[in-house]
Amino acid sequence: MKRLMLGLLVLILAACGSETxxxxxxxxxxxxxxxxxxxxxxxxxxRPAFAAATIMQTPxxxxxxxxxxxxGGMSGGSAMMGSNSAAYMTIRNSGTADNLISASTDVAGKVxxxxxxxxxxxMRMEQVEKIEVPANGEALLKPGGFHVMLLEVKxxxxxxxxxxxxxxxxxxxxxxxxxxxxxxxAQ
Length: 187
Known about the structure:
By secondary structure, the protein is mainly beta. The protein contains one helix and 14 strands; from the N terminus they run H-E-E-E-E-E-E-E-E-E-E-E-E-E-E. The strands form three sheets. Strands 2, 3, 6, 8, 9, 11 and 12 form a seven-stranded antiparallel β-sheet that branches. It is globular.
């Protein structure tokens, strides 16, 4: 049951101090890194999404018509999705502790920092105020954990597209990344 709930959550996601300085990173691919002070951002990507809501169907529901008024969500067997996406990355820190405090992009109406928490047998997303990047450590933003949630997507995000995503850190300032849209690799 936990695997089913986590799988549904992953599918729904396909549908999370000092003066601020701004840096625009060069165009990157999934393996490229961007730096801002002691921070290095690597392996960034965003999930595909549709601007207009579409119906999510699991293999067992492939022939079942679903209307927007039928409910849905993780426990309803079907869900409306497509207006949200998420961005993931690894943030390495070779200096003092910092915090990712916000993110923004022109392709979404709203951007939030999220994590995924277990609530009994159900996995659910929860907004967080910040994502800690420990001194001489890293913050891993990945499916099923911390992520940058892109809400109210304004345009289709197709595999192969690239979006601009700005990350603001409490101490290091702001960096704008070129983030490729792709499907996550198998974990």
